[in-house]
Amino acid sequence: MTVNQILSTKGKDVFSILSTNTVFEALTVMSEKNIGAILIIEEGVLKGILSERDYARKIVLKSKSSKKAFVHEIMVTEVFTVSPSDKLEFCMELMSTKRVRHLPVVENDVVVGIISISDVVKAIIEMQKETIAHLNSYITQ
């Protein structure tokens, strides 16, 4: 299974903010959209990603104010991306080795979606269910 197959099921919605937004504004959008990470895209270019983990570690634990801190102060700028044609096994390995939970999907330098570890796990479980059903069918014939 490929990243594109996940996106065709979950959708290709991409939510983004600017690095000049406050962390509070970013969290508000994340809450409204029910997402765990948001991309920072400026002039069509992916500049970074901000996750709930970044907020917890860089704002809450350091007793900073999310209304006074800006996204550019805590966002991750080394963003690992995948392409629509990448296989799930590659995504899982990348997420595991780089310790990230979200991967923007980029095609021709344009963000066309984002997948999470949850999306990948769900897809793998569905693939395994199909394989088990196929094997059961084969055995009982």
Automatic annotation (TrEMBL):
Enzyme group, top EC level? oxidoreductase
What InterPro entries is this protein classified in?
A: CBS_dom, CBS_dom_sf, CBSX3_CBS_dom, Diverse_CBS-Domain
Q: Which SUPFAM superfamilies match?
A: CBS-domain pair
The superkingdom listed in its UniProt entry is: Bacteria
- Chain ranges of the CBS domain: 8-66, 75-130
The UniProt keywords, alphabetically, are: CBS domain, Oxidoreductase
Q: What is its EC number?
A: 1.1.1.205
A Pfam family (short name) is: CBS
The Swiss-Prot or TrEMBL record annotates one GO molecular function as: IMP dehydrogenase activity
Protein name in the entry: Inosine-5'-monophosphate dehydrogenase
Which organism does this sequence originate in? Answer: Flavobacterium succinicans
UniProt lists the gene as IMPDH_1
